[in-house]
Amino acid sequence: MEKIKVFYDKEGQTLTVWFDDPKKEHICEETGEEVILIKDKEGKVIGFERLNVVLKVEKKGNIPLETITV
Question: Is the pLDDT at 11 greater than 80, yes or no?
Answer without folding.
Answer: yes
